[in-house]
Specification:
Length: about 150
C-alpha cells in the first residue's frame, strides 16, 4: 500500500510539473508576442515620423502631425523596453533585447532634444539611423521566432 501511495504521489508531482512547464511556455509565448508587436509598433512610428518630416516642410499641418508622432514614437520606445523586460524575466532568456530597447530609448531621447532645439543636421540622420536599427531589431526578433518554431 505504501508503494502505491508513493507511486500516486510521484504521478501527481509529474502532473504538477507538466502543468507548470505548460504555463511557463504559454507565458513565454505571450511575452515574446508582446515584444514583437512593440518592436513593430516602434518601427511604424519611426516610419510615420519620416513621412511627417516631409509634410513638415511642405504643409501647414505637418508640424502638428510630426509633434504627435514624436510622442507616439517615444511611447512606443518605452513600451518596447517594458516588453523586453517582461520577455526576459519569466523565461530567463537573454537580457540582450533589454540592452537594445534601452539604447533605442536613449536615441529617442536624444532625437526629441535635437528636434526641440531645431538641429536638423543631427536630427534627420539620427532618425534614419533609428529607423534602420528598429527594422534590424524587428527582423532579428521575427527570424528568431521562425528558428524557434523549427522552420
Amino acid at each position: 500500500m505504501a508503494t502505491q501511495t508513493t507511486a500516486d504521489r510521484a504521478t501527481a508531482d509529474r502532473a504538477t510539473a507538466d502543468r507548470t512547464t505548460a504555463d511557463r511556455t504559454r507565458t513565454d509565448r505571450r511575452t515574446r508576442t508582446f515584444l514583437r508587436v512593440s518592436i513593430a509598433l516602434q518601427t511604424l512610428a519611426v516610419f510615420f515620423q519620416a513621412a511627417t518630416a516631409g509634410l513638415l516642410l511642405s504643409t501647414s499641418y505637418g508640424e502638428t502631425l510630426h509633434g504627435v508622432g514624436a510622442r507616439v514614437m517615444y511611447g512606443a520606445s518605452m513600451l518596447y523596453l517594458l516588453a523586453a523586460i517582461l520577455a526576459w524575466r519569466p523565461g530567463g532568456g537573454s537580457p540582450r533585447p533589454i540592452l537594445y530597447a534601452s539604447g533605442f530609448l536613449a536615441l529617442a531621447s536624444a532625437q526629441v532634444v535635437l528636434g526641440v532645439a531645431h538641429v536638423p543636421s543631427l536630427h534627420v540622420p539620427l532618425g534614419v539611423l533609428m529607423f534602420g536599427l528598429s527594422v534590424l531589431a524587428l527582423g532579428g526578433e521575427l527570424s528568431g521566432a521562425r528558428r524557434t518554431r523549427g522552420r
